[in-house]
Amino acid sequence: MMRERVLTRTGAFRAWWSVAIVTVSALLVAGACVFYTNQQQRQSDRRWCELLTTLDQPTPAPTTARGREIQRQIHRLRLDLGCEVR
Fold it and tell me: pTM to 2 decimals?
């Protein structure tokens, strides 16, 4: 059984080889985009951590119902982002 060559007699790529190259290239670009987006999101989350950590430890503590609710939501957001307490 003879193996089919990648190039035709005229020097062009065979159709299956061209499809494979395009598919692999598209997957590599998609993977790089996902990696970059995740990295940028983590960096953005870290920037918010400093502010949220400061807001999560107010002095004096909130005295109104609205202030306590805002404090609770800030605390939940800080925990959701994985910010460490200093």
Answer: 0.59
